[in-house]
Amino acid sequence: EVLSKWVGESEKNIRDIFDKARQVAPAIIFIDEIDAIASRRSGIETNNVAEQVVNQLLTEMDGIEALKNVIVIAATNRIDKLDPAILRAGRFDNVIFVPPPSKEDQKAILNVYLSKMPLDGDKEEYIKAILPKIDGFVGSDIERLAKEAGLVALRKDINATKVTLEDFEQALQVVKPSLKPEEIKAYEEQAKKFYNENKAISEQLNYFG
Predict the structure, then answer these.
(1) What is the CB-side half-sphere exposure of residue 21 using CA atoms within 13 A?
(2) What share of the chain is helix, strand, coil (3-state, %, to 5)?
(3) pTM, full prediction
(4) Which of 93, 101, 137, 171 has the fewest C-beta atoms under 10 angstroms from its C-beta?
(5) What is the pLDDT of residue 35?
Protein backbone atom coordinates (compact mmCIF):
# COMPACT_ATOMS: atom_id res chain seq x y z
CA GLU A 1 0.00 0.00 0.00
CA VAL A 2 1.13 3.56 -0.73
CA LEU A 3 -0.62 5.48 2.06
CA SER A 4 0.62 5.12 5.62
CA LYS A 5 -0.35 6.69 8.95
CA TRP A 6 3.33 7.32 9.72
CA VAL A 7 4.78 10.72 8.80
CA GLY A 8 6.91 10.54 5.68
CA GLU A 9 6.17 6.84 5.08
CA SER A 10 3.73 7.44 2.21
CA GLU A 11 6.26 9.58 0.32
CA LYS A 12 8.93 6.92 0.92
CA ASN A 13 6.62 4.24 -0.48
CA ILE A 14 6.21 6.25 -3.68
CA ARG A 15 9.98 6.76 -3.99
CA ASP A 16 10.55 3.04 -3.48
CA ILE A 17 8.02 2.10 -6.17
CA PHE A 18 9.63 4.38 -8.75
CA ASP A 19 13.17 3.38 -7.75
CA LYS A 20 12.32 -0.30 -8.18
CA ALA A 21 10.69 0.37 -11.55
CA ARG A 22 13.84 2.15 -12.77
CA GLN A 23 15.99 -0.75 -11.60
CA VAL A 24 13.98 -3.44 -13.39
CA ALA A 25 13.02 -1.37 -16.49
CA PRO A 26 11.34 -1.90 -18.85
CA ALA A 27 8.47 -1.70 -16.38
CA ILE A 28 4.91 -0.49 -15.94
CA ILE A 29 3.69 1.24 -12.79
CA PHE A 30 -0.07 0.91 -12.42
CA ILE A 31 -1.79 3.09 -9.81
CA ASP A 32 -5.38 2.05 -9.16
CA GLU A 33 -7.81 4.65 -7.74
CA ILE A 34 -5.19 7.37 -8.08
CA ASP A 35 -7.67 9.95 -6.74
CA ALA A 36 -7.00 8.46 -3.29
CA ILE A 37 -3.38 9.67 -3.37
CA ALA A 38 -3.47 12.53 -5.88
CA SER A 39 -6.50 14.62 -5.00
CA ARG A 40 -6.56 18.38 -5.41
CA ARG A 41 -4.22 20.28 -3.09
CA SER A 42 -5.71 23.09 -1.03
CA GLY A 43 -2.64 25.28 -1.23
CA ILE A 44 -3.15 26.13 2.44
CA GLU A 45 -2.32 23.06 4.50
CA THR A 46 1.21 22.63 3.21
CA ASN A 47 1.99 19.97 5.80
CA ASN A 48 -1.05 17.92 4.93
CA VAL A 49 -0.06 14.30 4.24
CA ALA A 50 -2.14 14.12 1.06
CA GLU A 51 -0.45 17.22 -0.35
CA GLN A 52 2.99 15.83 0.43
CA VAL A 53 2.08 12.61 -1.37
CA VAL A 54 0.97 14.54 -4.47
CA ASN A 55 4.20 16.55 -4.40
CA GLN A 56 6.28 13.38 -4.16
CA LEU A 57 4.38 11.75 -7.02
CA LEU A 58 4.92 14.83 -9.22
CA THR A 59 8.62 14.84 -8.34
CA GLU A 60 9.01 11.20 -9.34
CA MET A 61 7.12 11.64 -12.61
CA ASP A 62 9.03 14.78 -13.59
CA GLY A 63 12.16 13.11 -12.32
CA ILE A 64 15.64 14.42 -11.87
CA GLU A 65 16.30 10.82 -12.82
CA ALA A 66 14.40 10.15 -16.04
CA LEU A 67 11.79 7.40 -16.22
CA LYS A 68 13.52 5.63 -19.08
CA ASN A 69 11.50 2.63 -20.28
CA VAL A 70 9.05 3.08 -17.40
CA ILE A 71 5.37 3.68 -18.23
CA VAL A 72 3.00 5.03 -15.58
CA ILE A 73 -0.68 4.13 -15.91
CA ALA A 74 -3.42 5.10 -13.48
CA ALA A 75 -7.15 4.49 -13.10
CA THR A 76 -9.85 6.58 -11.44
CA ASN A 77 -13.60 6.94 -11.34
CA ARG A 78 -13.29 10.55 -10.17
CA ILE A 79 -11.12 12.47 -12.61
CA ASP A 80 -12.69 15.67 -11.28
CA LYS A 81 -10.96 15.04 -7.93
CA LEU A 82 -7.45 14.78 -9.37
CA ASP A 83 -4.92 17.54 -8.84
CA PRO A 84 -4.67 19.37 -12.21
CA ALA A 85 -0.87 19.23 -12.06
CA ILE A 86 -1.01 15.43 -12.45
CA LEU A 87 -2.60 15.77 -15.89
CA ARG A 88 -0.15 18.22 -17.40
CA ALA A 89 1.95 17.29 -20.43
CA GLY A 90 4.84 15.03 -19.60
CA ARG A 91 2.99 13.30 -16.79
CA PHE A 92 -0.25 11.63 -17.83
CA ASP A 93 -0.32 12.71 -21.47
CA ASN A 94 -3.25 10.55 -22.57
CA VAL A 95 -6.58 10.30 -20.79
CA ILE A 96 -8.88 7.52 -21.97
CA PHE A 97 -12.50 7.20 -20.92
CA VAL A 98 -13.41 3.54 -20.49
CA PRO A 99 -17.20 3.20 -20.68
CA PRO A 100 -19.09 0.44 -18.85
CA PRO A 101 -19.51 -2.83 -20.75
CA SER A 102 -22.01 -2.78 -23.59
CA LYS A 103 -24.46 -5.65 -23.99
CA GLU A 104 -22.03 -7.30 -26.41
CA ASP A 105 -19.22 -6.87 -23.88
CA GLN A 106 -21.38 -8.33 -21.11
CA LYS A 107 -22.26 -11.26 -23.34
CA ALA A 108 -18.58 -11.95 -24.01
CA ILE A 109 -17.70 -11.71 -20.31
CA LEU A 110 -20.63 -13.91 -19.32
CA ASN A 111 -19.55 -16.44 -21.93
CA VAL A 112 -16.08 -16.65 -20.35
CA TYR A 113 -17.44 -17.48 -16.89
CA LEU A 114 -20.20 -19.80 -18.05
CA SER A 115 -17.66 -21.74 -20.12
CA LYS A 116 -15.90 -22.66 -16.87
CA MET A 117 -19.06 -23.87 -15.12
CA PRO A 118 -20.88 -27.22 -15.23
CA LEU A 119 -24.25 -26.03 -16.50
CA ASP A 120 -27.51 -27.91 -16.43
CA GLY A 121 -28.33 -27.07 -20.03
CA ASP A 122 -27.14 -25.20 -23.10
CA LYS A 123 -24.80 -22.28 -22.42
CA GLU A 124 -26.49 -20.07 -25.03
CA GLU A 125 -29.82 -20.50 -23.27
CA TYR A 126 -28.21 -19.32 -20.03
CA ILE A 127 -26.75 -16.26 -21.76
CA LYS A 128 -30.11 -15.46 -23.38
CA ALA A 129 -31.88 -15.69 -20.02
CA ILE A 130 -29.31 -13.81 -17.92
CA LEU A 131 -28.21 -11.01 -20.27
CA PRO A 132 -31.41 -8.88 -20.06
CA LYS A 133 -31.17 -8.91 -16.25
CA ILE A 134 -27.64 -7.56 -15.77
CA ASP A 135 -27.94 -3.90 -16.77
CA GLY A 136 -25.20 -1.91 -15.03
CA PHE A 137 -23.08 -4.99 -14.36
CA VAL A 138 -19.35 -4.60 -14.93
CA GLY A 139 -16.90 -7.48 -15.33
CA SER A 140 -16.37 -7.99 -11.61
CA ASP A 141 -20.15 -8.06 -11.04
CA ILE A 142 -20.57 -10.82 -13.61
CA GLU A 143 -17.74 -12.77 -11.99
CA ARG A 144 -19.45 -12.41 -8.59
CA LEU A 145 -22.75 -13.51 -10.12
CA ALA A 146 -21.20 -16.70 -11.51
CA LYS A 147 -19.54 -17.51 -8.17
CA GLU A 148 -22.71 -16.81 -6.22
CA ALA A 149 -24.73 -19.08 -8.54
CA GLY A 150 -22.22 -21.85 -7.88
CA LEU A 151 -22.54 -21.29 -4.13
CA VAL A 152 -26.34 -21.35 -4.38
CA ALA A 153 -26.12 -24.77 -6.04
CA LEU A 154 -23.81 -26.07 -3.30
CA ARG A 155 -26.00 -24.70 -0.51
CA LYS A 156 -28.91 -26.65 -1.93
CA ASP A 157 -26.85 -29.82 -2.31
CA ILE A 158 -23.21 -30.09 -1.24
CA ASN A 159 -22.81 -32.84 -3.83
CA ALA A 160 -24.31 -30.79 -6.70
CA THR A 161 -22.59 -31.29 -10.04
CA LYS A 162 -24.59 -28.80 -12.10
CA VAL A 163 -25.50 -25.11 -11.83
CA THR A 164 -29.04 -24.38 -12.92
CA LEU A 165 -30.74 -21.28 -14.28
CA GLU A 166 -32.72 -21.19 -11.04
CA ASP A 167 -29.40 -20.90 -9.19
CA PHE A 168 -28.56 -17.85 -11.28
CA GLU A 169 -32.01 -16.37 -10.60
CA GLN A 170 -31.37 -16.65 -6.87
CA ALA A 171 -27.86 -15.23 -7.27
CA LEU A 172 -29.34 -12.18 -9.01
CA GLN A 173 -31.26 -11.44 -5.82
CA VAL A 174 -27.93 -11.11 -3.99
CA VAL A 175 -25.53 -9.65 -6.56
CA LYS A 176 -26.42 -6.11 -7.58
CA PRO A 177 -24.87 -3.92 -10.32
CA SER A 178 -21.97 -1.64 -9.43
CA LEU A 179 -23.26 1.11 -11.69
CA LYS A 180 -26.59 2.89 -11.66
CA PRO A 181 -27.84 4.77 -14.76
CA GLU A 182 -27.27 8.14 -13.06
CA GLU A 183 -23.69 7.17 -12.20
CA ILE A 184 -22.94 6.16 -15.78
CA LYS A 185 -24.33 9.49 -16.96
CA ALA A 186 -22.19 11.35 -14.39
CA TYR A 187 -19.02 9.57 -15.56
CA GLU A 188 -19.82 10.36 -19.19
CA GLU A 189 -20.34 14.03 -18.33
CA GLN A 190 -17.06 14.12 -16.38
CA ALA A 191 -15.21 12.68 -19.37
CA LYS A 192 -16.87 15.12 -21.78
CA LYS A 193 -16.12 18.11 -19.54
CA PHE A 194 -12.50 17.06 -19.10
CA TYR A 195 -12.06 16.55 -22.84
CA ASN A 196 -13.55 19.95 -23.70
CA GLU A 197 -11.48 21.77 -21.06
CA ASN A 198 -8.24 20.19 -22.18
CA LYS A 199 -9.05 20.68 -25.86
CA ALA A 200 -9.48 24.40 -25.18
CA ILE A 201 -6.15 24.53 -23.33
CA SER A 202 -4.38 22.73 -26.18
CA GLU A 203 -5.83 25.16 -28.72
CA GLN A 204 -4.60 28.09 -26.64
CA LEU A 205 -1.10 26.61 -26.40
CA ASN A 206 -1.03 26.07 -30.16
CA TYR A 207 -2.15 29.66 -30.70
CA PHE A 208 0.68 31.02 -28.59
CA GLY A 209 3.17 28.90 -30.44
Answers:
(1) 23
(2) 55, 5, 40
(3) 0.66
(4) 93
(5) 85
